[in-house]
Amino acid sequence: MHNEAAAAMDGVAHHPFFLNENATSVNGIDANSLEITTAEGYVRLYLTIFSQVLAVYYGIAVFMHFVLPALVPVVSVQGTKSQSNEDTKRDAFRSFLPLSIKAATLLIGETLHRAGWGVMQDISLQEKISTPAGIASMLACVLLLDIYHDTWFYFSHRLLHRPWFMKNVHWMHHQSTVPSAFTGYSFHWIEALMVYSNAIVEIFLFPIPFAFFRIYELWMIAIHVGGHCGYEMAPFVPHLGQSLWWLTGCGKKNAQLLNTVHHHDIHHKHPKYHFSLYFTHWDYWLGTMHQDYVKRHGA
Q: What digits encode the pLDDT tens for the residues 40-80?
């Protein structure tokens, strides 16, 4: 265990975000060219990514399911209902395989970049945000990433509700009619491939710093965990759209454009509605907004 932990921490320390310009080659990863030089380098990199994915998912899920409700009063969006202990254990166990696939997609994305594919930039995050123009560029990229992820999620989610996929794949996620923080990635491996492959496409679309790619994708995990936690987090949902809502005066009209825990919870009770992730515009435009939600929120 000590050696495995040391290897994981060593891999974190040599992620491009932390590298210094005098480093050369560590554990099969060339620090200057970002080239993985050995099979051991690939394994170490994957294990580092996987350990980070597991830590973020299970760490936040434990905090939101057990710790936070013990510290502050929370109210289930389904009234008196909360997920049974048996379903929580099932979802926690079932999430492990999708998380391993999530880590694999990040490894593929990073490997493609190291091989010269895509449009990500080989500059540090600190350098990128060292000027006002760089900060504005990063904020624009993050907002566009949010829109891109929301769009990918909406349409892949609609596809998962087609008869064959629902019967053979997506039913697994919908076993949780009362979700919890552990439900976020509790689904079939085919669904994991469909949902997570957006990270590979992403590297060809967004000129973000290479180091930020993994940071953003790990943050996406937090969003999925929070979106299934079972009690309302809005207006404290940690994504840029929610931040812009705060900055524009917290208007009710703008709030209707943002997703909430209650919004997605309705999907687990009424699977024909609410397929979006961050925003609600696709549900409004394509007729998948539940009328009870519309009436309750005055949309």
A: 999 999 999 999 999 999 999 999 999 988 998 887 877 76
Selection from 226, 239, 236, 220 nearest residue 182 by Cα: 226
Q: Is 258 helix (H, G, I), strand (E, B) or coil?
A: strand
Report how far apart, in Å, the C-alpha atoms of 114 and of each of 47, 57, 278, 286 are.
Answer: 18, 26, 30, 39
Partners of 258 in the β-ladder: 279
DSSP string, 27-84: TTEETTTTEE-SHHHHHHHHHHHHHHHHHHHHHHHHIIIIIHHHHS---BTTBT----
Residues 6+ apart with CB under 8 A from 12: 18, 48, 52
Enter the pTM of the model. 0.83
**Which residue in this structure is represented by tokens 């992403």?**
202
Measured at the CA of 64, the angle between CA 56 and CA 244, to 5 degrees, comes to 80
Q: Is the pLDDT of residue 148 over 80?
A: yes
